[in-house]
Automatic annotation (TrEMBL):
UniProt keyword list: Aminotransferase, Pyridoxal phosphate, Transferase
Xref: SUPFAM superfamilies: PLP-dependent transferases
Its EC number(s): 2.6.1.-
PANTHER family: ASPARTATE AMINOTRANSFERASE
Organism placement in taxonomy: Bacteria, Pseudomonadati, Pseudomonadota, Alphaproteobacteria, Rhodobacterales
Protein name (Swiss-Prot/TrEMBL): Aminotransferase
Residues annotated as domain Aminotransferase class I/classII large: 32-392
Source organism per UniProt: Yoonia tamlensis
Catalytic activity: L-aspartate + 2-oxoglutarate = oxaloacetate + L-glutamate
Record GO biological process: amino acid metabolic process
Amino acid sequence: MTFLSATLDRVKPSPTIAVTTKAAELKAAGRDIIALGAGEPDFDTPQNIKDAGIAAINSGKTKYTAVDGIPELKQAICAKFARDNALTYTPAQVTVGTGGKQVLYNAFMATLNKGDEVIIPAPYWVSYPDMVLLAGGTPVTVAASLDTSFKITAAQLEAAITPKTKWFLFNSPSNPTGAGYSWDELKALTDVLLRHPHVWVMTDDMYEHLAYGDFKFCTPAQVEPALYDRTLTVNGVSKAYAMTGWRIGYAAGPEPLIKAMRKVQSQSTSNPCSVSQYAAIEALNGTQDFLAPNNDMFVRRRDLVVDMLNTAQGIVCPRPEGAFYVYPSIADCIGKTTAAGTLIDNDEAFATALLEETGVAVVFGAAFGLSPNFRVSYATSDDALKQACQRIIDFCAKLS
C-alpha cells in the first residue's frame, strides 16, 4: 500500500515552473543564463495599484474576507465586464480566487464526474489537462497546426464533441502561441456549440488586454449571447496589470455554478488575500493609461523576436496577435546533431541542449501538447531578447 494518492499518478509537475526553476539554479551557480520560460511581465505593478494595496494595509484591511471576494471587488468586476465585453453580471454571479488557475480548478472540481470530457485545443497552457485529471475528468485535446495559425476549426470542434463532453475550454489570445481568434473565427465555434446544448464553455481571457495591431479581442458569451447561461468567463489582473504575485483571478457565470465553486473554495483556500483584493479594485476601476504604452513595448519585442528567429536555420516563427509568447516550429531541426554531439530527436531534446550549450532557457513544445516547437516568453528586456535570439541563431547554424 502506497502512502500517496493514486490521483497524483495521473498528473505531472508544471513544465514551465520546472524550466524557470532550472534556469534560476544554473544562474545561481554562476552560469550566464537568459530565461525565456516564465509567463510574467517584467514591468512593475503600476504605482496607483501599489498605493491602493499600501492603503489597505495602513487602514487595517488585513482580516478574513468573504470566501470568494469582497463586495466592492465584485462590483468592480461587474463594471469591467459591462465596460469591456458588453456582458451584464450581478455580484452574485462573480467569484474571486487566488489567481486564474484556482478559478479554473474550482470550476472543474465543482462540475466534473468520472468519464466527463473536457475539450482542450492544443497547443494549450500546460496546466489545463492536469487540472481536468485532478478533478476526475478526461481531457480531450484537439490539435491545431501552424497551417491554421494554431487555431482549431469549427469542423474539428464538431468532431470532438461526444455525449460525454461537459466543457469546451477556450483561450484567446493563447498561451503558448499568442494566437487570437477573430470575431468571425470565434462565431464559427460558437455556432457549433449552439447545436450541442449539453456542452458548457469555459474561457481563459487572461491575455485580453494584450492584443496587438488590428486584432480585436472578443469572448464567447459576447460573440454569441445565447451561450451566456452556460459560459464561465474567466479573467484576472496578473498579466496586463503586472500583478502576477498578487494572485487575483476572477470569473462570472450562472449563479448555481458560482455557488458550487464557492463551496469548493470555502473548504480549500477560503478567501484570496485581502490586500490584493483592494489593489485589484484599483486595477479595474483606476486609470488604464499604462496599457497602451506597455502593449507598444510588447509589439516591439514581439517583432524583434519573430524577425530574428525567422533567420535561424530550421526555425519557422509565426507572428502572433497577442499575449507575450511566440511558438516557433523546429520541424527542420529534428534529426540533426548539436555542436556538442546531442541528437535532436524531439523538442525537449532541443530545449535541453539549448539551455546546456547556450544558456537560453525556453519551454519545449510537448509540454503544451503540440510538437515540434518551443515557447519563448518575450516579457523581458530588448537586450536580453537580442542576446537570446542570437544564441539560438548560432545554435541552429551549428546543427548538422
